[in-house]
Structures are given as C-alpha cells and as structure tokens.
Design a protein that fits this description.
With 228 residues, the protein is of the alpha/beta class. It has seven helices and ten strands. The protein has one domain: 3-Layer(aba) Sandwich (Rossmann fold), CATH 3.40.50. The strands form two sheets. Strands 6-7-8-3-9-10 form a six-stranded mixed sheet, sandwiched between helices. The chain has a four-stranded antiparallel sheet with strand order 2-1-4-5, covered by helices on one side. Pfam families: ABC_tran.
C-alpha cells in the first residue's frame, strides 16, 4: 500500500531531512508517526501526498511509484489521499456543508450525489446539526470533525493526518482519534503524526518513531521488507 525504499530527502538548503527510510505500511493499518520537532515527520507525510519528492530511493503508494509521477497525474493520484491538518484549513466564508461539498465539486462529482454524500459524512463525523454554521462559530474539536469529513468525502484509501489533534485538549483529541479509528475500521489506511504521548498510550497502534531523519523504532519492524 505505502512503501518507502531507501528514501533520502534533501531540501534545497542541502540538509538531509530523511535518511535511508525503509518503511512498508499495509492496507488497513493505523500507524502513529512520532518524533521530536524537526525529526522529519511532516516531510515523510509530504512524500506520501507528493507535496515533496524523494531525493533518492522510491516511494510507492497503492501500487504506483509516485517518486517521478507526472504533474498532470498528481491530481488523480491525490484523490486517493485524504489529508487532515493541525490547523483545520477550513474556508472561513463557507459553511460546514459548503466546506465539505467543495471537495466533491472540485473533482467534478455529480451535484445529485454531492448532497447525499456530504450529509452522510457530516452525520458520520457528528457535525450534521451544525451544517449551516461557519468555522468561526465552531469549537476546535468541531472544526476538526469538519476537516475529517472533508478528508473522507471522496472515499480515499489513505488518510494522512499531520498533528491533527495538536490544537485540541485531550478529551477532544480522543474523540478525533476515535473517529479516525472508526474510519480505519472501514478499511481506510491511516498515518497520523503526533507528539501526544497520552494518545500513544491510550491507543494500541503501530508506532513508527523518527529521530534526525531516521526510523529509530517501529513496533512492527519484523514485518518490514528492509532493502539496503
Ligand atoms: N521546505 C523546507 N525547506 C528546507 N528545510 C525544511 C523544509 N521543510 C522542512 N525542513 C526542515 O526539515 C527538518 C524536518 O522538518 P519536518 O517539518 O519534517 O519535521 P517534523 O518532525 O514534522 O517537525 P514538527 O513536529 O515540528 O512539525 C527540519 O529541520 C526543517 O527545518
């Protein structure tokens, strides 16, 4: 499903942010990516969403090598990936419904299907009753529910969540991870970067730890295909 083979990532300033990453994540897994600030978590996630490109090695997702994917194919590739952000990235001048609807509109979905699907996901994430509210009228936890609704509305195979509980208290963080867990139970692969030790302790998931650009721990290391 997601496979990193001997991946290095160097930014233009010459610093090697990721070093020889070998990582395999199977379909339907829920993985916590942990590490101190600057360790390289976001960079690793950006290689999956293909916002960044590996400097060396290859990244393959859903059976396709995306390392050198053509720019005109990126749009189609990204339909398989839902992204949840720490700061929600909701459009302030759009309602909850409109924020989620837009994600379907931009890929040209049939307007008839849009309404049914948006209502369905708003119900799933528990924010249906606030569908006409604007982001400024919602709590952080509610905003993140909308962020998750937007991420899942196009039925992606993978959800990438970068510190998606970073702006929430522990109670709301738990509710958000519970929601991601229920999405994972439907077969969606989840990769979530987090600093939150409470969350790590409470949820028994695979943990991949990065330090200074290297994987230093993986609770499922035995199942790796390490290619050196
Ligand atoms: N666009 C960029 N250009 C140059 N260096 C970058 C860029 N993005 C990240 N870096 C550097 O790469 C390293 C890893 O950054 P990254 O954001 O991946 O870490 P992180 O583990 O997600 O950190 P945090 O938990 O603080 O978000 C840092 O030293 C950072 O300064």
């Amino acid at each position: 499903m997601i496979k990193f083979t001997c991946v290095d990532k160097m930014y233009p300033d010459g610093n090697k942010t990721l070093k020889n990453i070998n990582l395999k994540i199977d379909k339907g897994e829920f993985v916590f990516l942990v590490g101190r600030s600057g360790a390289g978590k976001s960079t690793l996630l950006k290689l999956i969403t293909r916002e960044e490109r590996a400097s060396k090695g290859s990244v393959s997702v859903l059976g396709n090598d995306i390392t050198n994917i053509k720019v005109n194919k990126l749009h189609t590739y990204r339909r398989n990936i839902g992204i949840v952000f720490q700061d929600f990235k909701l459009l302030k001048d759009k309602t909850v419904y409109e924020n989620v609807e837009l994600a379907m509109r931009v890929i040209g979905e049939n307007p008839k299907d849009i309404k049914t699907r948006v209502m369905e996901v708003l119900q799933k994430v528990g924010i249906y009753h606030k569908c006409n509210k604007y982001p400024d009228e919602l709590s952080g936890g509610e905003c993140q529910r909308v962020g998750i609704a937007r991420a899942i509305v196009n039925k992606p195979s993978v959800i990438i969540a970068d510190e998606c509980t970073g702006n929430l208290d522990i109670e709301n963080s738990r509710k958000i991870v519970d929601l991601l867990e229920s999405i994972n139970e439907e077969g969606v692969t989840i990769v979530m970067a987090t600093h939150d030790m409470e969350i790590l302790k409470q949820y028994n998931k695979r943990i991949v730890a990065i330090d200074a650009g290297k994987i230093i721990k993986d609770t499922k290391r035995d199942q790796y295909e390490v290619i050196v």
